[in-house]
Each structure stands twice: as structure tokens, then as C-alpha cells.
Amino acid sequence: MASRMFPGAGQFMTGDPVGGSLFAAADVAVFAGSLLTAYALLPANVQIGGTGGLDYLNAPLSTIETTWKSHSVLDYLPSVGVLAGGMIVKHLIGLWSSSSAAGLARKNIQAGKVTFEPQILPFMNGGMPGMGMMMRFRY
Fold this sequence. Notes:
Blueprint: H1 2-5, H2 9-13, H3 17-40, H4 61-69, H5 73-110, E1 117-125, E2 128-138
Antiparallel strand pairs: 1-2
């Protein structure tokens, strides 16, 4: 689950820092690359500063709104397409990372590097301490 949320986290948890670093770097690169490319594909007059660009800190909100609404949906489609493609690639990296981390975890269990010790801990149930029990495994 850790690698699905942030690719590479599961590799760090299972003792593969190189794999974790590579998955994390790939995830950050896809995220940053998608954002920067989507921004570059926006119409020039809605980008920050530059020739004909907006000054978002000093321009009135009505000017910003009018500038964004002066374009059709077709003008924004390339940016939206890049963002959608980036989300798909991030999802695939997360799936690959989590599958790899699960395989590493299974190998660690089979090799005896990881053992499970059940612990029974009290937890809050409806605001009342000690009215329920929870099992947690340590490894």
C-alpha cells in the first residue's frame, strides 16, 4: 500500500533503497514534467508574466477571469491531455512499484528476515478508552 500512495516507499520499507530511489525519482519526474509541459501548452496570455502574460498578483480578478474565458475549450485541450497522460503514467508507476515491493516483502518473509508478533492494543471505541481491542503485527 505504501508504494501505491508514493512509489518507492514500499521498496524503502522492504530494504531496497536503490529501487525505492528510482521509483520515487520516476514518480517525481513524471509529476513535474506533466505540470511543466501542461503549463507550457497553455495559451501565452494566461501564462504568468512575459509578453502578453498575466500578472496574477496585481491584476484584478475580473481581468484574470476574462482572460481565461476568452479561450475555447479547444485551446486548453493540449494541456488537459498532457495532465491526463501524466496521471495514467503515475498510476502505472505506482502499480509497478507496489507489485515490486510486494514481491520483495514475500521474499523477505520466506527468507526469515521478517517475523510477525501479534500485539493486542487497547483503542478508542466511540470516545471510550478500552472498550475495544485491535490487533497489530510487528515485523
